[in-house]
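re the bet — no i am not wrong, look at it urself. input seq straight from the record:
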Amino acid sequence: MQKDIETVTIKRMSADDVEGVISIEEKSYGAHHWSRESFYNELHNELAWYYSLFAPDGKLAGYAGTWHILEEAHVTNISVDPAYRRHKYGEALLKKIIDDCYKEKIKYITLEVRVSNTPAINLYSKYGFSSFGTRKKYYQDNNEDALIMWTKNIFYNEFKSNYERITKDLDGRILIK
């Protein structure tokens, strides 16, 4: 049975979005989340690209951020409000990040993810990220290790053909405005 296509809006994050982002941070990460000041600072960081995702009901449902440094992008965060998870919103945000990298001629994408965050690791692996080690005791709240993940050059056919295949499926489920 084919699900209905959901229409979401992804736009550059603005200062007006920060309170909603903090709400998602608190629900997702508890007491150990980024501060308002951190997000306001990122909005003025010339290397930072931050996005807000609005669900079909118009509510802020997720956000993502990256830093673009020369030929690399570093994903700083992707988070979806727990009430909106399992709708492919995190995947839509990751697609937006990768599309930006293509536009900006960025070849490689990297990130850290908790070793226990299996859903995120599975998403990143699906999109061509591979593990290249761990950062021991990276997360301060519980000293959990972070898995370091990288893509191959996103302009190589191996990455591009996989990306085109999986985003075709995503495009059949979510319309991004």
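see?? The chain has one domain: 6-176. told u. also Helices lie at 18-29, 36-43, 89-103, 118-126, 157-171. so pay up
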